[in-house]
Fold:
Amino acid sequence: MTTLQSLQKAKEGIASEKRKTVAPTLLARAYAQRAGDREPLHLRMRLAILDALAQGAWSAGDKLPAERDIASEVGLSLGTVQKTLSALAVDGVLVRRHGHGTFVAGDMTQSSQLLHFRFVGDDGRSIAPVYAEAIDRKIVRARGAWSKFLTESEAAILITRRINVADEFDCISDFYLDAERFKMIMKMPIEKLHRTIIRNFIAKEFNAPTLSISQNIASGPFSERIRQLLSGGPESKVGMRLELRSRTHGDVPISFQQIFIPSNARPLEMPNARVL
Structure:
């Protein structure tokens, strides 16, 4: 391992530990500072979460720790934590998604950056908020649709993310990259992939910007794997499959992506094929 690789590994390790500890520490500290307050426990917890948010513990779109982890961190019952989070969701501060967790509301920054999850908002003009959650990351070697485009790749990194749109429905994204060139991605904490715009990341870290995209779309039944990931009842059995083939410098293939959109989706704003 070279000195540069060692430094990079150390940097990644420090960043990972910081992500794991900073937010819970801020929350625990904010709650401890209100130990003398006379309000009910759930109100003290509410103010502590708001304080932690104000101090930058989480950003819009971030997923909060599991309820049990929060309860353990601050020394409260699970019921008190659930009551607090539910009240903040009613007030629009948080978004509670059954089976997925609790997120900080207002992720319009991520919505505006995502090229292919730009679903029309309630007013017909804005873009609906989205919440991305990485659910799997693995190396695949079995040849498939991805290898017909990434022809020089012996294996690919497959990043699967569930994209919730306006807390109404989910889409599934399968994103393929060359496993050798982008092997660093396999070492990243998977939590980072919740919010990372992968195209932006590989452009910055690997000097591999997406310069053009060709795309096609088809409708039909989903595979059993996609139906299980969507878990949306009958409406998740069929839908649209959007395929994206991206190229970088020298017209070299850089990524292959399949997006599965259920039949109950909002209207989707389609981007230009050429990325500016």
